[in-house]
Amino acid sequence: MMAVTSSRQNIFRLASPHRSSSCQPGIQHTNLQALKRKTPPATTCSDHCRAGQELCYLCMQRALKNFPIDLSENRRIKEEENEQILHQYQQIKDQDTLFQQQCEMLAKREFNQKISAFNIGVAEAKKELKNSKCKASRNGYIFQRRLLTPPVFLKQQQYAQCLTKQIQEKKQREEKKKQDDEFLDRLEQVQLAEDLAVQRQHFQKEKQEQTEAYKKALDFQRKYKPRQLPASVPDSVEPIFGSSDSLGRTEEQKQEAYNLYNEQMKAAADRKRIAILNELYEQKTESDLLERNRKSLINEHKKRYENLQRIHKTLEEAWNDNVIMKQLKDYEENQYSKAGGLFLLDQCNKYRRCFQCKRRLSNSGQTNIWSNSFITTGTN
């Protein structure tokens, strides 16, 4: 534990911010070297070779004042110190973990020893108890004032009486149930007999009524039996057929014949009207079909014409675009021929500017903002 404490103290000493002053001499030495190694005054831009342009006055002064400082050595030293501190911390952490594991193992070992000792003691106690049971004799007790045990046959008589009583009760229940079933069967038979008698009476009554109805019908037919046809008479002045009919019967027959004629005429007219309506419906259906075909044909011609117009318009637009592109191309060629065949970079050589700030070389701090702005007020 003392080693762990000392190592932790060392880590805290290394990680404390007051110890960082050890790095200051290295940093100061590096800064001094960087100050000694100042860059020579830059008279040209780093990309001078690309456009042939020099630096302006401001960029040149800025380049003279700027000098690089190398901090890589300080960064490397600091990283090494951090790695060393981390390594020491990891070692301390591993030692603590190992110590905890050892403590847990010792505690577990002691607990197992206690359990083993307890089990051994229990086993020995059981063994001693078992051996003592075999050797020792049991102590008996005699009750002097205890009553005599009653004989067995008394209880047997009680059990026999109870069983006999249960058997008798069971027989009585069975007999009563049997009597009830027989009574219900007889009652059902009586009800069935009564139902059959009622049905038989009803059937006989219906049969008698039907017989009487047949008898009445036969009597009526016999009473109002039509006469036989008269004998054939070659020359008769009076009407032969219908002479026996009464006047009311003749009028009734005429009315029936007239009604039948009207119904037949009405049915014929209905059939004719239905046929005409069907024909008209078919004509209308055919006319609708023809009209629909005519409209579809017109729409098809219209779509075809619109498609042709669209294609024609597209071709005209494409032709106009090609003409405009050709004119632009001719204009560009004309401008190129007027420029003397120089490219853009070649033309930039005429206008020398600083590559860094993109200003003219004679610039010495001027700005493009006007110092005096004259505003002309307007009238509302």
TrEMBL record:
InterPro entries, per database record: CCD81 (IPR026295)
Disordered, as annotated region: 230-249
GO CC annotations, alphabetized: microtubule organizing center
Protein name in UniProt: Uncharacterized protein
Source organism of the structure: Scyliorhinus torazame (Cloudy catshark)
